[in-house]
Amino acid sequence: MDPERAADHLPGTTGGLPDANGGLPDANGGLPDATGYLPGAAGGLPQVRVPSGDVMRAVSAHADVRQVLADPRFSRELRPGGPRLARGGDVSDDPYSLLNMDPPRHTRLRRIVAGAFTPRRTAAWRPRVEAVAAELADGMDAQGPPCDLLAAFAFPLPVRVVCEVLGVPDADRERFRAWADTALSTGTDGAARRSASGAEFRRYVEEFVAARRDAPGDALIDVLIAARDEGEDGDGDGGLSGPELVSLVINLISAGHETTAHLVASAVLTLVAGGRRPAAVDARLVEEVLRHDTPAAVAMPRLATEDAELSGGTVRAGETVLPMLAAANRDAAVFADPGSFAPDRPTGGASHLTFGHGPHFCLGANLARQEVEVALGTLAARFPKLEPAVPADEVPWRTGGIVSGPAALPVRW
Fold first, then answer.
1. 3-state secondary structure of 124
2. How far is CA 53 from CA 115, 174, 322, 389, in A?
3. Quick one: which of 363, 107, 360, 358 has its CA closest to 238?
4. How many whole angstroms from its chain centre is CA 142?
5. Coil, strand, or helix at residue 13?
6. What is the pLDDT along the chain (413 residues), one digit of tens a residue?
7. 411, 386 in Cβ contact below 8 A?
8. Fewer Cβ neighbours under 10 Å: the N or C end of the chain?
């Protein structure tokens, strides 16, 4: 999304529709505008050209996206050389990543780490999340307006939390941010940069794991190292291989802050630009934020291993399907007046798909919900007159990546 198009993504609006003549929408170096692909488009499932130049089937109806994410006929183990989001390879090419595995390999790795993110464990982290949020708000107050909310608050909150949970040095958070930004980029000229950055990130984690094995602690990284040591290079029922451990830590660091940071910034923009300053932040408001301001417009592509019927049309074996999360979250067949922001939206029926669905449902969903609730609650209490320091349509927007949201959010109070 170009910065000047940020206004198209304020409450109650959507982006452009597919070419009326049936042409393939061109992503122009960024991901397709997911809100533009609506159920029932002429010809059934539309095709979409992604930044790599590859063509995929776009699935946007809520029921269809939900099915693709859960149906074992749609595999995350993409064939070598097949369609990818980014030219020259992307996160889908790591064979050791939990993101790119189907059961039973996926089940084994997920079982190892899932226990660390239960609701009870997440609740135990809340006091620390609140303390970090308060400390960052103090820093904003001391700095004074205007300030960039993303840099001063929305980014450091989740990255500091994930660093503490994992046990990795918070002092390296700017390096983590740079590595994650590069890994999640889709720019057509970034293949060499993604490869070099990914190798650097892996070396860092390998060295950190080796150092932690010599001087263990009680963080999540120590639990994962113990799981690595239980099996014989991942061949045992409970073990992780060395490469699997490294990829898992990389995934947790990257996913543990990128989406949450941009979600918090997007949510603040939605609230304050719309004149909404909630006196209290409850679970219903958080769920509407997650639905309305979906930070990842698409889920990772799936490969159809068999023919499958969806409400929007037939997917043939061998086709690559792109689940459009943001479009599914604004499906009028599921959500009344889907473009509007409605924190009092009824909670019954189908839920948003921001965290995915099925085997790859986001491990950190409980933590992300907690961080968003604490972040918005802290800002509402400390800065009740918070507002954008520039017109909403001048807020620069993140482009050329899987995660979307403000690239910076100047605010005053």
1. helix
2. 39, 31, 14, 37
3. 107
4. 31
5. coil
6. 332 223 233 333 333 223 322 333 433 335 554 434 434 444 458 888 888 889 999 999 999 999 999 999 999 999 998 999 988 778 899 999 999 999 999 999 999 888 888 899 999 999 999 999 999 999 999 999 999 999 999 999 999 999 999 998 888 878 887 888 777 776 655 677 788 888 899 999 999 999 999 999 989 999 888 887 765 444 445 578 899 999 999 998 888 788 899 999 999 999 998 888 887 899 999 999 999 999 998 999 999 999 999 998 999 999 999 999 999 999 999 999 999 999 888 766 679 999 999 999 999 999 999 999 999 999 999 999 999 999 988 999 987 778 889 999 999 99
7. yes
8. C
Tokens of 348: 């019954």
Short-list 298, 313, 305, CA closest to 356:
298
Contact (Cβ atoms closer than 8 angstroms) between residue 301 and residue 92? yes
Q: Are strands 320-323 and 302-304 parallel, antiparallel or unpaired?
A: antiparallel
Burial of 5 (0-12, 13-18, 19+ CB in 10 A): middle
Query: What count of Cα atoms within 13 Å lies in the side-chain half-sphere of residue 253?
Result: 29
Query: If DSSP codes are grouped into helix, strand and coil, which group holds residue 192?
Result: helix
Side chain identity, residue 231? G
What are the tokens at 50?
A: 């992604």
